[in-house]
Amino acid sequence: MSPGPSAPAGATPRARPRSSGPRQLLPSMLMFGVIVASSSLLLMIEKGILAEVKPLPLHPAHGELPARRGGSAGVAKEEEEDVAAQVIHDIRNRTIRAACGQAGTPRSVWELSAAQRRVVLKHLLVSDKHRFLYCYVPKVACSNWKRILKVLGGTLENVNTQLKMDHRRDLVFLGDMKPDEIRYRLKHYFKFIFVRDPMERLLSAYRNKFRRSKNTS
């Protein structure tokens, strides 16, 4: 068998391009790991609380619920739904109190380390026009809420605009402000956050970070 054609004299051999797959996959794996850890922690907290919570009565005392129109079957169903909602609401409030009531839990962002404070403040979006702070959580509709903030700020026409989401442009982060500006807004602005069932959030992260990237590769 004759040898293949040799490279011209003085030519530099071409190096094979390295696959960037692992590098592209690493951020997705890290994000997925963070979501798994936070979801597991919330489930453990709720499990411990549920063991101590006394169930609410299946039928609230007379007069606790407003009178409703309709048949008795419809009223009974609405009462059951109200009781279930009350139980869930109570569990969530107890979860928050248990997590925030742990010994050594910081009561202010200024009690956090510098690195922790940067992370927290980078997740707080500011609307000076409407005087509120929105703490976004990945995989809890944060992209849609960022679009809403852009619409409120006048930099986006509507939330249905089919454009790739830029998670930095035209958004104001509390972490980019001076300490006195941060303190003022934390004290005087309305603050809110949205949460999601940990398992649903975990599944959403898996579909977004792994299945979608696999289908598009």
UniProtKB/TrEMBL annotation:
Going by the UniProt record, its keywords in alphabetical order are: Carbohydrate metabolism, Glycoprotein, Golgi apparatus, Membrane, Signal-anchor, Transferase, Transmembrane, Transmembrane helix
Q: Where is the composition biased (Low complexity)?
A: 1-20
Tell me the leader sequence span: none
InterPro entries the UniProt entry points to: Carb_sulfotrans_8-10, Sulfotransferase
Q: Using the UniProt record, give the first listed, main subcellular location.
A: Golgi
Domain of life per record:
Eukaryota
Q: What EC number(s) does its UniProt record assign?
A: 2.8.2.-
* Cellular component terms per the entry's GO annotation: Golgi membrane
Task: Please provide the Gene Ontology terms (biological process) for this protein.
Answer: carbohydrate biosynthetic process; dermatan sulfate proteoglycan metabolic process
Query: GO MF terms on file?
Result: sulfotransferase activity
What family is this? Belongs to the sulfotransferase 2 family.
Its name, as the record gives it, is Carbohydrate sulfotransferase
Origin organism is Podarcis lilfordi (Lilford's wall lizard)
